[in-house]
C-alpha cells in the first residue's frame, strides 16, 4: 500500500502513521525524518535542505518534492507519507512522480478534528522549568497545580503551546493543506477517520480502513 495521512495539528496522525506502519509492514515516511536523513547523507539535495533547516526556514515545495521522490517514492518499498504533501502543489508533484513510475496511491487518510478540540489538545502542554518533564493540563495533569511531580519545580506553558502559536499553525493548515482534502476526494482516494476519540480508538478505526483497502 502507498498511503498519505492528512490532518490538522493535534489530530495525532503521526502517532497513527507510526502504529499503522508497524501493523501493516509499511515504511513510516515523515517529512521531518526524511529531511534529517537527506541532510545526514549529504547528497546535493540533502545539503540544500540542511541550509533551510539550519536557518529555521520552510523548505520550498519544489525541493521538498524532489527530496521525497529521491528518499521515498523512487524506492521499492510501500509507505505512509506523513506531513507530505502539505500543499496542493506538492499533491500534484506526488501524482506526477507516481505517474512517471506507473504507480498510484491506494488512499489518503484524513484525520478529521475541529479547531476547538485541536486548540484544547495543543494549548494544554506544560513543561517543568527545572527537570524538563512534560505534562498536559487535561490529559497528563500534575498532582498539584503548577508543580512538577518528579522534582517539585515550577511548570510553565511550552513555547510551542501558546494559543497564539497554535492558532497560527491551524490557520496555515486551513490555508495551505486542507485543500488537499477536496483534491483527494475528487480522485476517489479520500478515507475519513474521526480523530476526536482517544488514540486507541482512532488506531482501531485506522486499522479497519486499511484492512479494507488491503483486501481490495
Ligand atoms: Zn521537574
- The backbone outline, from C-alpha atoms, is globular
Helical fraction:
40-55%
Q: Tell me the β content.
A: 15-25%
Radius of gyration: 19 Å
Mean pLDDT: 95
Counted by DSSP, the helix tally is 9
Name every ligand kind in the structure.
Answer: zinc ion
**CATH second-level architecture:** 3-Layer(aba) Sandwich
Q: Given this structure, which CATH class is correct?
A: Alpha Beta
Would you mind describing this structure in some detail?
This protein has 216 residues and is of the alpha/beta class. The protein has a single domain (2-115, 160-215), classed as Rossmann fold. Helices cover 50% and strands 16% of the residues. α1 packs across α9 (199-215) and α6 crosses α7 (163-177). The mean pLDDT is 95. The structure holds zinc ion. Residues 128, 130-131, 133, 148, 150-151, 153 line the site of zinc ion.
Brief summary of the model shown:
Helix content is 50%, strand content 16%.
Please give a handful of descriptors for the protein shown.
three-stranded antiparallel sheet; alpha/beta; binds zinc ion; single chain; 9 helices; about 220 residues; Rossmann fold; about 50% helix; five-stranded parallel sheet; about 15% strand
Q: Topology, please?
A:
Blueprint: E1 2-6, H1 13-24, E2 27-30, H2 31-41, H3 44-54, H4 61-73, E3 79-82, H5 88-100, E4 107-112, H6 115-123, E5 125-128, E6 134-136, E7 155-157, H7 163-177, H8 179-186, E8 190-194, H9 199-215
Parallel strand pairs: 1-3, 1-4, 2-3, 4-8
Antiparallel strand pairs: 5-6, 5-7
Helix pairs in contact: 1-9, 2-3, 2-4, 3-4, 4-5, 6-7
Zinc ion is lined by residues 128, 130-131, 133, 148, 150-151, 153.
Amino acid at each position: 500500500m502507498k498511503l498519505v495521512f492528512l490532518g490538522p495539528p493535534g489530530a495525532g496522525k503521526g502517532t497513527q502513521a507510526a502504529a499503522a506502519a508497524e501493523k501493516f509492514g509499511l515504511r513510516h515516511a515523515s517529512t521531518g525524518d526524511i529531511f534529517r536523513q537527506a541532510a545526514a547523507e549529504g547528497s546535493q539535495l540533502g545539503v540544500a535542505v540542511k541550509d533551510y533547516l539550519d536557518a529555521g526556514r520552510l523548505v520550498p515545495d519544489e525541493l521538498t518534492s524532489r527530496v521525497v521522490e529521491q528518499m521515498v517514492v523512487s524506492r521499492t518499498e510501500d509507505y505512509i507519507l506523513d506531513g507530505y504533501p502539505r500543499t496542493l502543489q506538492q499533491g500534484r508533484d506526488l501524482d506526477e512522480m507516481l505517474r512517471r513510475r506507473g504507480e498510484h496511491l491506494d488512499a489518503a487518510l484524513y484525520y478529521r478534528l475541529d479547531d476547538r478540540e485541536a486548540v484544547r489538545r495543543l494549548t494544554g502542554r506544560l513543561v517543568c522549568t527545572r527537570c524538563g518533564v512534560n505534562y498536559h493540563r487535561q490529559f497528563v495533569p500534575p498532582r498539584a497545580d503548577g508543580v512538577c511531580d518528579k522534582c517539585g519545580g515550577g511548570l510553565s506553558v511550552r513555547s510551542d503551546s501558546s494559543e497564539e502559536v497554535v492558532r497560527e499553525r491551524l490557520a496555515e493548515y486551513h490555508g495551505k493543506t486542507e485543500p488537499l482534502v477536496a483534491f483527494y476526494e475528487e480522485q476517489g482516494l479520500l478515507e475519513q477517520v474521526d480523530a476526536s476519540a482517544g488514540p486507541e480508538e482512532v488506531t482501531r478505526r485506522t486499522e479497519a480502513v486499511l484492512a479494507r483497502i488491503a483486501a481490495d
